[in-house]
Amino acid sequence: MIKLTNVSMVRDSKQILSDINWRVEQGQHWVLMGLNGSGKSSLLNIISGQQWPTTGNVEVLGERFGKTKIPDLRKRIGWVGSVLNAKINQFDTTDRIILSGIFNSIGIYQDYGQEELDRVDKVMKQLNISHLKGRKYLTCSQGQQQLVLIARSLISNPELLILDEPCNGLDIFATEQILDQVAHLINQKNAPTVLYVTHQASEITPMFDHTLLLKDGLIFDQGETNRVLTTENLTKFYGHSVKVDKYGNRYLVYLDRSNG
Ligand SMILES: Nc1ncnc2c1ncn2[C@@H]1O[C@H](COP(=O)(O)OP(=O)(O)OP(=O)(O)O)[C@@H](O)[C@H]1O
Ligand SMILES: [Mg+2]
Q: From the CB of 16, is ligand 1 less than 6 Å away?
């Protein structure tokens, strides 16, 4: 699904990503973790064709960058992140925002008919937000807005779904609702591969079988979540003594203050 080879990115003479080698196979779902500014969003922006790497090879969904039409590729990728949120016209209605996902545009500039409107209804129903139809985006709560953006990203049946901190600012119930929706989605046939960024270990449900840890633009570790998320590994990763526990099948990560 994704093959990055020796990818680096420099902007304003700042090294943002260095020597990234990462493969995502079909059927895997990955969590990306790392401190603020570690390069997670930049990495995902490269994968979704929104930013160019300075060096290295990028292959996404079988297409090699430099040899493929990026706008066509982008239609196969669903993406939710703060940059998108900032671009949305707050006065647009939820259903029009979701419809715009079909055209991969902000706003609607193309013709559409009943078939497209039916697809909007279907995805709103799937995410339990049919009651928000016709509502202006700015009147929706933050959690509802996130669900609208997720619906927008799903309407084109993407093969790759990038969720960059989708549960930021959401209460525990709204967070669980989004995680349930993602779990439901990836259990369907032709499910997309999901890349999910979070700062909250509690959001790492068993569906995320792989984890990538980014530190200062470098991959600190990558692999099966069970192996990566350990007390020893995360203590090295954060450079602070942290403890990793599990409660049921959920992770808990907290600062170890047992030494004061
Ligand atoms: N166009 C740019 N010019 C200069 N610096 C940039 C540019 N884009 C990103 N950066 C810097 O690259 C670093 C990585 O940013 P990025 O947004 O990828 O981090 P992140 O891991 O997603 O962080 P967060 O958890 O805060 O979302 C940051 O220091 C950021 O300021
Ligand atoms: Mg980010």
A: yes
